[in-house]
Design a protein that fits this description.
The strands form two sheets. The protein has a two-stranded antiparallel sheet. It has 18 helices and four strands. With 468 residues, it is an all-alpha fold. It folds into two domains: 190 residues, Ribonucleotide Reductase, subunit A, CATH 1.10.620.20; 206 residues, Ferritin, CATH 1.20.1260.
């Protein structure tokens, strides 16, 4: 026999009510088995129910993805134009944090009836207008205020609200995705607040930053916030970007602590004298460590490439973002290794030759220089350097070079595919044109002397003169 019960509902209900049907004695038997079961595991308090359908969930995640992709690109566009060392270094990290956020969201979207091709092709003119205005910041301090204190905070809030509002059982993959992203957001936003406070303490006009924040907050509200579903307010006017569209910088900037040079690629020439005998282990060791510190120019290079090839290929953008993060670590490694070697890192002149040449250059040729010459050049010599460091029990150099070697191997491998996205030129033609362009630049800087009518520096010259 069976019994049926009806809970709530009548013929006028908007939702159909389906009765639950029980077979005689089965519920009682289940209760008996439960009493005999010895383990009382933690109770899962989650309840079914949430605000979003799959379609609405995907719509919001697609907009989140687009914001993250645009933030990755935007920070890349500013890497040359940020003077302050710590801010440039941290920006290299944040580029990858936003790239990783975009990747997480892209993968979740692919599980919600949205294929990668559609995700990658998505554009939003309203978001683009906001990004263009945010990029029109007049200083690095304004850039941080816009990216972190306006858009970053709004995104973090939206992610938390989405976790609260979506179904905690049926949509737990989205919740996990957003919580993973927030693990990067929390320290990133905390750092930005401290960095902006440092700018203000150092003399930046706090009221100008407040005006810029308010302007961008109103602009974000005019497009429905980061979700696009908030009440829309009137857009502020005028917009800086309407009067002058954003164009990325081409000149590498350094803060006042640096003494820079670009008219040579040789540290001894730049210093005016040699610290150690030429080609001695001590000389090679110091050059290697200085080169790592000077990979601040590689943050600029890969960040700029990311902007220059935006929307061509998401995987290439993601790989560039990851390499940018690696170069930020290399810069930090070099800076800390100089300290560990007994130097004030700022007493050692900073080489701008590479960024000065690459900044105005077409991305394919600039990428070819750093990948085909710079990184390959490092791999030619680093094994011997590590072996010698081990023989001399130089644990400082052996330790850092071991990790850098593994990164450079990865960069060379990934770089080949990125170059394929950038250009259709075959390898030999790309290498030759890159050498020609760098010859022209190095001659104009005085880094090499043109003493013949037809002159192109060799691969080895570029590896030595620019050597990332």
């Amino acid at each position: 026999m069976s019994t049926a019960s009806s809970r709530g509902g009548n013929g006028n209900s908007q939702h159909s009510t389906i009765p639950d049907v029980h077979i005689s004695n089965q519920r009682e038997a289940a209760a008996d088995r439960l009493r005999e079961f010895p383990y009382r595991f933690p109770r899962d308090p989650r309840l079914l129910g949430g605000r979003f359908t799959v379609a609405e969930n995907a719509r919001r995640l697609l907009r989140f993805f687009y914001f993250e992709r645009r933030l990755m690109q935007s920070l890349g566009a500013w890497t040359l134009s940020i003077p302050e060392f710590e801010v440039k270094l941290e920006t290299g990290r944040h580029i990858f944090y936003h790239a990783d956020a975009a990747r997480f969201l892209r993968e979740r979207l692919s599980e919600q009836e949205t294929n990668f091709k559609r995700v990658d092709a998505f554009r939003d003119a309203e978001v683009d207008r906001f990004i263009e205005e945010m990029l029109s910041a007049e200083s690095a301090a304004e850039l941080l205020a816009g990216i972190h204190q306006v858009l970053g905070r709004a995104l973090a809030t939206a992610y938390r609200h989405h976790c609260d509002d979506t179904d905690p059982v049926t949509d737990v993959p989205t919740i996990r995705c957003l919580r993973r992203i927030l693990t990067d957001y929390d320290p990133m936003l905390a750092w930005a607040d401290e960095a902006i406070a440092a700018y203000v303490a150092g003399g930046v006009d706090e009221s100008r930053l407040a005006v810029w924040r308010w302007h961008l907050q109103r602009l974000l509200a005019s497009i429905g916030g980061v979700t696009g579903s908030e009440p829309r307010e009137e857009a502020p006017s005028p917009l800086r970007s309407a009067a002058k569209p954003f164009a990325r910088g081409t000149v590498p900037l350094r803060d006042a602590r640096f003494d820079t040079f670009k008219n040579t690629g040789d540290y001894d020439t730049a210093d005016g004298q040699a610290r150690f005998p030429k080609d001695s282990y001590e000389s090679l060791r110091l050059r290697f460590i200085r080169t790592q510190r000077d990979e601040v120019d590689a943050i600029e290079a890969f960040g700029t490439f990311l902007w220059d090839i935006r929307f061509k290929d998401f995987q290439a953008e993601y790989d560039l973002a990851r390499i940018t993060w690696d170069e930020a670590r290399h810069t930090e490694i070099g800076h800390r290794a100089l300290l560990a070697a007994g130097y004030d890192p700022f007493e050692l002149r900073n080489r701008l030759t590479g960024s000065t040449c690459r900044g105005p250059m077409e991305p394919a040729f600039a990428m070819a220089e750093i990948n085909l010459f710079g990184e390959v050049g490092v791999l030619k010599t680093i094994n011997g350097l590590i072996d010698t460091a081990a023989e001399r029990r130089d644990e400082l150099l052996r330790h850092i070079a071991d990790f850098i070697r593994s990164d450079e191997r990865t960069h060379v491998r990934k770089g080949g595919r990125i170059i394929e996205v950038m250009t259709d030129l075959e390898a030999r033609a790309l290498e030759l044109r890159t050498r020609e362009l760098f010859t022209e630049c190095l001659v104009s800087l005085g880094a090499v002397t043109k003493d013949m009518d037809v002159f192109t520096v060799s691969r080895e010259d570029i590896e030595h003169l620019v050597g990332e």
